[in-house]
Amino acid sequence: ISFDEKKYAEAFDLYKTLRNCSSSDNIKDMAYHGLVKSGFFANKYNETVLYADSLLGIPGLSVEMTNDALYFKARSLQQFDSTDTCLAIYKELSGNKNGEIAAESRYRISEILLKAGKLKDAEKAANSTIHLSAGYNYWVVKSYLVLAEVLEAEKDYFNARATLESIVKHTKIDEVKKEAAAKLEEVNNLDKKHSKLSDEQ
User: Fold this and answer.
1) Roughly what angle, to the nearest 10 degrees, separates helices 25-41 and 8-21?
2) Which of 23, 26, 88, 161 lies at a 20 to 30 A Cα distance from 66?
3) Alpha carbon of 39 to those of 13, 51, 88, 124, 185: distances in Å?
4) Cβ pair 139, 106 in contact under 8 A
5) Cα dihedral angle (159, 164, 166, 169), rounded to 10 degrees?
6) Phi then psi for 105, rounded to 5 degrees?
7) Distance CA 43, CA 28 (A)
8) Rounded to whole angstroms, what are the CA distances from 20 to 24, 66, 146, 166?
9) pLDDT value, residue 2
10) How far from the centroid of its chain's Cα atoms is residue 145's Cα?
């Protein structure tokens, strides 16, 4: 109930109590699963990684729990810029039978590569998400944002602007539309600044 009501710190403490009080393996599995999910949403990233490892060490773990443990471990490690470990987990999850997890994992790979300044690799990963993630529109559109950021970093403001304008015009996802609009304003300002410097030279 606490987790469903988004009282994640409270849920985390209750799952910890449950883990310590129960002798049933099934209940302990559920408690560790709850610790991983509530820990992440309560911003307890170190604890999430540790409990994810504990959960992954349990024999005969269900596919759903395995997926969640890997996913929340990667998302927590990403908060600490553990690039190599994150990428390895996301690459493993990118072929997952759960399409939502696979699509997000592909996007996260491009996000990490972009942040690391590996522009060509980020572009390749974003294009992979777009081509392989049909039906998962949120992650597809977010991948177009990555492509726009790659173009911006390469000072290809014309194509960055075109990509962002297309997102603003076509996406129905308010969050992404706002993100694209803010990025579009940034690209326009950079383009003007770049043009001004070129004229002065």
Assistant:
1) 160
2) 23
3) 9, 9, 22, 33, 36
4) yes
5) -150
6) -65, -40
7) 22
8) 11, 21, 44, 53
9) 95
10) 13
* Structure tokens belonging to residue 140: 């597809």
Instruction: Report yes or no: 90 and 128 within 8 Å, Cβ to Cβ.
Output: no
First to last CA, the chain: 64
* Amino acid 11: pLDDT: 97
* Planar angle of CA 23, 48, 34, nearest 5 degrees: 45
Q: d(Cα 48, Cα 54) in Å, to the nearest integer?
A: 10
Q: Is 118 left (phi over 0), alpha (psi -120 to 50) or beta?
A: beta
CA distance 142 to 165: 14
Tracing tokens 């777009």 back to the chain, one arrives at 130
**Cβ of 192: how many Cβ atoms within 10 Å?**
11
Write the Ramachandran bin of 81: left for phi over 0, alpha for psi from -120 to 50, otherwise beta.
left
Q: Going by C-beta distance under 8 Å and a sequence separation of 6 or more, which residues neighbour residue 76?
A: 39, 40, 45, 46, 48, 49, 52
- Going along the chain, which residue ranges are E strands? none
- Helices 45-56, 63-78: axis angle to 10 degrees equals 150
pTM above 0.90, yes or no: no
Give the separation between CA 201 and CA 191, rounded to whole angstroms. 15
Which of these, 201, 185, 114, lies nearest to 154 by C-alpha position?
114
> In this structure, how many other beta carbons lie within 10 angstroms of the beta carbon of residue 10?
15
SS3 11: helix
